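Per reviewer request, we include the raw input and output of the structure prediction for the construct analysed in the revised manuscript.
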Amino acid sequence: MNVITNNNLKCTIALAALQNVEDPEIGLNIVDLGLVYQIDFDETAMMIFCTMTLTTQFCPMGESITNAVKENLKLRFPEYEPIIELTFYPPWNHEMISEAGQDFLNQR
């Protein structure tokens, strides 16, 4: 799944930072899991808007994952305020996992 953005360069940097955030139940980072849908940058308000999902609406690690997303974006872009929005549309499914993520999961 491709991440929607209004700034390709900064989005690439943000996604690299978010590869440090793992779903602890699966052991795979949220980027390769396909949980990140959109990252937009508001240069005037100095905010990053990250729209993402979880593997299920009732994911017990949801708060931990979203806090880690916020922390990693803040570390990489200290001048911006990260705003995390959870959505469940479209609902996550296994087809959203990247090829690298599939390889990782198949080796376990």
